[in-house]
Amino acid sequence: AHPLQELSGQELRQMLPEAIGAGLIGIETQHSSYHEEEFELAAQIAGEFNLLASGGSDFHGRSKPDVFLGMGKGNLSIPARVYEDLLDKKRSL
User: Fold this and answer.
1) What is the mean pLDDT of residues 20-45?
2) Is the pLDDT of residue 16 over 90?
3) 23, 37, 31, 34: which is closest to 82 by C-alpha?
4) pTM to 2 decimals?
5) Angle 36-48/9-21 helices, nearest 10 degrees?
6) Residue range 19-46: mean pLDDT, rounded
7) Mean predicted confidence (pLDDT) in 6-24
8) Are 32 and 58 within 8 A, CB to CB?
9) How confident is the model at residue 70 (pLDDT cuts 50, 70, 90)?
10) How far apart are CA 44 and CA 32, in angstroms?
């Protein structure tokens, strides 16, 4: 989840081949803590590695009352297509 909070773009690129080899099919490209540059970088890296782009609102129920399921802080809104793409990929495995 939200790899660019812990890793630089270069570090993420270095670890992805092993993670993909272990079955990784997507990375979180949208998160309420990301700035526009991080959205773009995460999406670029997902494309480079042919990974699904996922997103998270960081919804945790009552512990984060200002964050709703599928909608994070600011303008973040995770489209239903993200979920549908994951289901499609699961079906094709």
Assistant:
1) 91
2) yes
3) 31
4) 0.79
5) 40
6) 91
7) 96
8) yes
9) low
10) 18
From first CA to last CA, the distance across the chain in angstroms is 22
| pLDDT band per the 50, 70, 90 thresholds, residue 75 | confident
Cα atoms found within 13 Å of the Cα of residue 26, Cβ hemisphere only: 18
Q: Which long-range contacts (CB under 8 A, 24 or more apart) does 8-15 make?
A: 9/41, 9/45, 12/45, 13/45, 13/48, 13/49
Residue with tokens 């079955």: 23
3-state helix, strand and coil shares in percent for the chain, rounded to the nearest 5: 50, 15, 35
Helices (H), 1-93: 9-21, 36-48, 80-92
Residue 80 backbone dihedrals phi, psi, to 5 degrees: -60, -25
pLDDT digits (tens, 9 = 90+) for 59-69: 778 887 777 77
Q: Which amino acid is at 91?
A: R
Instruction: Please answer whether residues 45 and 20 qualify as being in contact, where contact means their C-beta atoms are separated by less than 8 angstroms.
Output: no
